Amino acid sequence: MGRLDGKIAIVTGAGSGLGKAISESFASEGAKVVVTDVNAESAESVATAIGANAMALHQDVADVQRWQAVFEETEKAFGTPHILVNNAGLVIPATIEDCTLEQFRLTNSIMLEGVFLGCQTAVRAMKAQEELCSIINLSSMAALQGYSPFLAYAAAKGGVRSMTKSVALHCKEQNYPIRCNSLHPAGIDTPMVRQAAVGAEGDPTPETGMIPLGGLGHTNDVAELCVYLASDASRFMTAGEYPVDNGTLYQPN
User: Fold this and answer.
1) So which residues are the catalytic ones?
2) What is the Cα–Cα distance from 240 to 150, expressed in whole angstroms?
3) Tens of pLDDT along 144-159?
4) In whole angstroms, what is the distance from residue 117 CA to residue 229 CA?
5) Helix count (H) and strand count (E) of the chain?
6) How sure is the predictor about 200, in pLDDT bands with cuts at 50, 70 and 90?
7) Alpha-carbon dihedral of residues 245, 142, 120, 233, nearest 10 degrees?
8) CA dist., res. 166 & res. 237, Å (int)
9) What confidence tens digit (pLDDT) does each residue in 53-88 have?
10) Cα dihedral: 34, 134, 13, 206 (round 10)
């Protein structure tokens, strides 16, 4: 029996990287998964590989109408979702001195406004559920430490951190069966981190074994925690922030 048997999940930015790994892990634990991405072809590839328990949908997370459509299409195909993972994102290298307003707004439209729209749509849909529900927001270590080379990214992730707690407390105050938590990964071995803008180098991260301080994590290091937070086993956990950082927060240098 899987830890997510009977659950229905939506994962954004799931055409590659963390979203792909999370979708695959959810499906392996028994969930039906809606794989969404602005790159429809990538989303379709992931859903096809998972099989009958997955469906791909195109989604620009900054588009409020598309959020409503994604939830409606999910309900028609599988039922009302129990799980939402807000994962979609991008990285634009720019400091406080050279970040343009357009770059700042673009980054925040996807990674902060997009998470707001996802949480709002999910709460409205999930609040009548009889089963426990879970919203998982991908923040970053940048929200806990700051990250000067990527100002807009750090600002957006900081907003996600505090918004997560507000969403969680609202759901508790209203007695909704919804928990909301944030994850704060350090560098994870994904295409976004490997891109030239971020500059990660070296061999791919192995799935098992110790990782040296400063090394990249594996996507499954995050996906496995997502499975736990999505499952009813974590029913007493809400408004939490969980570093997935190999100790980086306490030994940053």
Assistant:
1) 153
2) 24
3) 998 899 999 999 999 9
4) 21
5) 9, 7
6) low
7) 10
8) 14
9) 999 999 999 999 999 999 999 999 999 999 999 999
10) -100
Rounded CA-CA distance 200/137 in Å is 24
Task: Provide the 10 A C-beta neighbour count for residue 252.
Answer: 12
Domain spanning 8-250 has what CATH number?
3.40.50.720
CA distances from 191 to 4, 16, 97, 140, 195 (A): 27, 7, 27, 16, 6
pLDDT tens string 160-180: 999 999 999 999 999 999 999
**Six token digits for residue 55:** 């469906």
Q: State the DSSP code for 117.
A: H
**How is the beta sheet containing 178-185 ordered, strand by strand?**
54-58, 32-37, 8-11, 83-86, 133-138, 178-185, 241-244
- Under 8 Å CB-to-CB from 209, ≥6 apart: which residues? none
Domain boundaries, the chain: 8-250
Strands (E), 70-124: 83-86
